[in-house]
Amino acid sequence: MPTETVLPESELRALVRWRIEGGRLPLMRPDYISAGYGSSHACSVCDLPIERAKIEYEVLTPDKLRKLIFHFTCYVIWQRECSRLMGEPSQSPEEPHETPGRVTPDWWRFTAHSILRFGLVDG
Q1: What's the CA gap between 114 and 117, in Å, rounded?
Q2: Where are the domains of the chain?
Q3: Which CATH architecture does the domain made up of 9-117 adopt?
Q4: Contact 51, 38 (CB under 8 A)
Q5: Nearest in space to 38 (alpha carbons), one of 26, 25, 48
Q6: Using CA atoms, how far apart are residues 120 and 102, in angstroms rounded to an integer?
């Protein structure tokens, strides 16, 4: 299961918005995402450590000076909030418009919706 955080989805959304407003998280669409086993560092959203047996997702800030590390669920919620704050239109998960083999912003919105729909995060 891709979720590791124990915080409800509504709390994660509030944390993301608060951290974007405070400058701790950038409002951005990453060009590159790397993933690997957890490093026990704190997640950039929930501050909980990402265990070594779990997968962590890493993004560089636009200035390339900071690494942001996320649980999968925390990353998806951050990107969903970025989409909302950037004024991007939402998309129905039944009609994804993505190119096969390419991860797009629409894919992340679709994935976030799926997580909530199948109960992987409290919502």
Answers
A1: 5
A2: 9-117
A3: 2-Layer Sandwich (3.30)
A4: yes
A5: 48
A6: 24
> Could you report the per-residue pLDDT of 8-55, keeping only the tens digit for each?
899 999 999 999 999 999 999 998 999 999 999 999 999 999 999 999
Say which residue the tokens 């799926």 belong to: 114
- Per DSSP bridges, beta strands 34-37 and 67-70 are unpaired
Q: Is 28 exposed, middle or buried (0-12, 13-18, 19+ CB in 10 A)?
A: middle
Closest-CA residue to 108 (of 119, 88, 56): 88
101: left (phi over 0), alpha (psi -120 to 50) or beta: left
Tokens of 15: 């944390």
pTM of the full predicted structure?
0.68
